[in-house]
Structure formats: structure tokens, C-alpha cells
Write a structure and sequence with these properties.
Elements: H1 3-19, E1 24-30, E2 36-42, E3 61-67, E4 72-79, E5 82-83, E6 89-90, E7 114-118, E8 127-132, E9 136-137, E10 141-146, E11 155-157, E12 170-172, E13 178-182, H2 184-188, H3 191-194, H4 209-217, E14 233-235, E15 240-245, H5 255-258
Parallel strand pairs: 1-15
Antiparallel strand pairs: 1-3, 2-4, 4-7, 5-6, 7-8, 8-14, 9-13, 10-11, 10-15, 12-13
Length: 263
Amino acid sequence: MDARASFDLLLPFLALLARGVGAATLSFANKCPYTVWPRTLTSGRNGELSSTGFELVTGVSFSINDVPETWSGLVWGRTGCTIDASGKFVCATADCASGEVSCNGAGPIPPNTLVEFNLAAAGSGQDFYDINLGYGFNLPLSITPQGSGSGCNTTSCAGNVNSVCPSELAVKGSNGSVVACKSVCLALNQPQYCCTGAYGTVETCPPTNYSKIFKDQCPQVYSYAYDDKSSTFICAGGASFLITFCPLLDIICDPILLGYSFK
């Protein structure tokens, strides 16, 4: 084996060392004018993280420091959460229907803005991450790589899709305001929108006027099934990640003007 081949075999291990042995960090910041309840869900063989669901009030940050270096999983934020008359924890958007803040292993009820991670995928030493609106949108967020990784770019869905959501896709809160926006596949469940059956290839399932609504607001996200080229981000080295809810709302914090009211 020549020196170049030996070096190529070492690359995945060097990338993991760049991150730090044993763990990465997921940090969360809430810049929304309302409380968000983040949720993490492990989708690989690793066990759940130390915090799977928690409250994050406006202006507060929180970090999970025990993320395995080969972790794959999902992150999303729940909104409009309360304790109901029976004592169960319930949310207006992205609820997991477990009745608990931790979600007890359950996934989200869409529509919800979904973050997807595959860290050190298949031993490659590369981190893959994206924001997926394939099932809809409930709040804006961004993913910012931090630490020693190289070639790591921020991806963001900072626009308020709720403000332009067509009525046939809209989910409304108790006061009539739009609190989430379904994808057209979720709302209408038709093959031409879900890219199934005869529409199951990239050639036969192009973007639709509905998916373009999501893409116009958030150009870096998955807006439908075959929206890969501009939506998957790869970090060449090890990194930790900051997930910021409402990343553009540092100054403008009027929830009524922005369409985020859960009262």
C-alpha cells in the first residue's frame, strides 16, 4: 500500500480526532418572541441523548455535550405547548403525542421544520446536515457548525412560511392565526406532489407551485422529495452545531406582526 492510500484510510479517523474523542455538542438558542420546546430523536444505533425534550424560553441557550461522534438523528422545535386538563403536555405544533416534555421516544406530528443530522456518516468522517420542509413548516431556524471543522457552512430557513401559507395548507391556532404550514404532499396526499408511483423519479416529479412557496422563503432547504442539490450540507471535518430558532428576530420581536401568536 502506497503512502497516499494509507493517508486516505486515515482521513476518517483524523476527522473524528479533530472533533474531539467521544462526543460532539448540539447547542440551542431561542431568538423567537415565544417559548420553544426543542426535541432530539436518535435515528441510528446510538441511544437517545441526555436531553430529548426541554423548554427554551426567549433569549435562552442550552447545550447537549454528549452527542456521539457518529450520531444520526432529528431535531425540531415545538410551539404553543401547555399542560392540558388531564395533566398531559401538549403542543400546538410538532407535538409528539406522548403527553411528556421528553416525548418518550415518539416522533413529531407534522407539519414541522425538521433538522436532520448524520455525523461522521458511514465512517467517512464527514458530517451531513440539512433542514427539511418535506412535511411542512412551523418555525424558522438555522444550523451553524462550530469548532474545528473545515468547509462547514451555515444553512438556514429564516423566512416565515406561515405568513404566505395557502389556506389549503394552513394549520390555525385557537385564535385563528396560522401556526404551521403543511407541505402539499401532507395536505393533499397525491402522487404528483408526493413523488410516488408514476411520479417517483426526479424527471417525473419536478418542483410545484406549492413547493416553490417554501423554497422562495427558505432557498437552502428541502422543499420536496427531489430537492437535493441545494439542500444537503457537508462538513469536511469534525464540528459541533448551533441550532438557532428564529435566527433573524434579534430586533423585530412583535409576535402579532410576525404571525406567531399562540394565545
